[in-house]
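Take a record:
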Amino acid sequence: MLKWSHTLVLCLSSLIIISHTNAQGTDLGGGIVTRTNVKYMADLTLDVKDMTQSFGNSDLVLDIYDNGRNAQQPSGLKFKLKELSDLMSNKGITEATPTYLFQLYGLAEESTDLNKVAQQFSYANNNVRVAITGGKDHAPQATLVFTLWMYAAHVLYEGIEQCQKMTEADNPELLNLGGGGIDEFIALWIGSGETHAGTDGFGLYALTQKAASRFDGGYIGGEAIANNAIKLLYHEGSQYLSVNGACTKDVSDTPKLLYSVASRIMSIMYIPLIQMLIDSILSQDAEMTVLYATAIIPQATQCRVTTYNRLREHLLTGIPRFDKTEIILRDIQDIYACFGLMCEDVGAYMNMPEGINFPFCTIAKSDATMAGYRPTSDVLPVAQIDLDIAQMRILTKLGNFKYAKYWFKYGRNSPVQRDSDNDLHSFYSLSDLSVASSRKNAEDIYLDFVAYFNDVNYAQGIIMGALEGTGKWGLKSIEQRSAVATESSAFLVVYLHMIAQINDAVNQCKNEKSEGEYDLTHPWDEVAALVIGSLEGIQEGGATDGRDGQLIWGLNTRRGFQFQTLNDQGYSKTNSDLIDALWAGRGEIDALDCDRLESTANNIKRLTLIPLLQSVVRYAVLNEGLEATSTREDLALGETYALAVLPIIDAVDENSGEVIRENMIHNDNLKPVSAGAQAVADAVGTAAEALGIRCSHLGSTSQADPCRNIVSSSSASSQMSLLFPSSIGLVASIWYMLL
């Protein structure tokens, strides 16, 4: 993530020279002069200073926190540290900014009960007050990491949202952009009276300086790399807002550009919290460990469920388990990539205590192993599209569709490769994938989907309808809208791109003009990334918790248990076959055995259909007893999985397709699964055979068996090459066609 900062630091002086400043701006030192007057926000750091210097007088410290002392708003009213928490919680859950909402969700132990989540609104003030009244000398640090840090993240997103509103408004001049969130953020980060590159301040900038001092390679010219990067990003965001017509219909891309800046700033903001947590653990300081764990571990709910739960168990359920230090450190490293960080961004801890074996950081590497498959090229940005889906799932399950739409439209976790330093930073997005021309590389499958929906951009329409409250599911329950938005992203959008990428890998092999190992292996590594994703971990078989994986691999994990199709090692047989096929394909590419690679590719296409077919049967069982008016997500899931396979099934078995359609596509006026779950299972089993999949590979449940009335054809698998003929000619990598 910060690998670009060393290049950008060379441009810092030129950025300052061309930056447009306002006579009403605030000079924060170190080359930072804001466009707008945000002194009152910067002065909150002076309150933290006074709290520090008043240690020993708890009443005075509490008075400073509650009532303020140094920060005065333009209105003349005091700006108080205590009220920052109220300003965030007053938005409610469905309007809360994302980082704040992830924190509440983590503190509520992943509950989607809005009342339970709302009980966490006062967590910042509560933690600070407990520290103050308990006479703890870390009360000012608690104020920084619970109150100022979170409010700084909050104002970034508030600025983006206000810019978006102005972009959509006919009269944007009637709306107040303020500092666009960027000015407010940098004022909160640096604060007043800060010494450039110093460690003697009292704000977040100073905390970051102190944190960097504990880790190797943490400085550029005396300034923490994280602080330097944040200042550079501030200048970038300020320039976007300085463009004439910014945040109007004339410059409609301003919200997207600000969102990119904010996303990268958020990644950097995590660095000092992670570094201070590691330092506290290795120092075996229980109070500081709990403080920083409370600040950062709830954020890990954006990442792997298993990692978050293990970190919470070891650090937040009583006295920290320092006897599990090596496991804890490994789990902390596991969340780096999810936060947009690489191992080198956090750095190596200095002055390691004796007896501690600090694990070598490998998980956040760009070529990290995925469920036992080790890519030879950098496909982490491709794999991390699953994080967009996982984070959208949290936001939408809590009814926060406003910010989930940003995730869908602009992306969050898959950075686009930049060919030069002059290229803008952006992310691959599910929205872009849903309309990309590269979908055509899926050939007949793509044509089948377009014909079925009679809409070239079918997936985008379905997902945006769920997010915006329009279309078929727009007025349904939060659970149903969430299910449509997230599962359609995974199995209508990403799945089709996986098929397209498989074809591309085969064609690259056959293309005589391909030069070098990278040209041949990278497309195949992307296939693995789109099958597995980044959330399965490095171990063979992938994640053990079925909630981790968001793509086909994760769906196989869930269905393998439900349909009794696990192997002797306890994970999905289909996934075992997939990993074998991925490694086989890699060997065939190395040997330039392109005909055999094509056969392997067709096998992967067949294997990836299995969990989707199983899902249709599962939700036929779950929905059989429901009414059409039910608000349960199962109705939406049943339809979504059906839509993921119906265009493919209709191409080979219209009768089976009609049975599935009549029973699984929701109709407000008809009882779901009216013919019964077994009738749907029969249709799925028949369709599987027609698709070249042995029915026995689907397994069964106690409620429905796809093979009950099927006599499996011995030639089923041989039909696969007819279902998925290989494409001809050179097809560019799907990810780079989006540039």
User: Anything to note?
Assistant: Residues 603 and 642 are 21 Å apart (CA to CA). Confidence is low (pLDDT under 50) at residues 3-22, 714-722, 725-739.
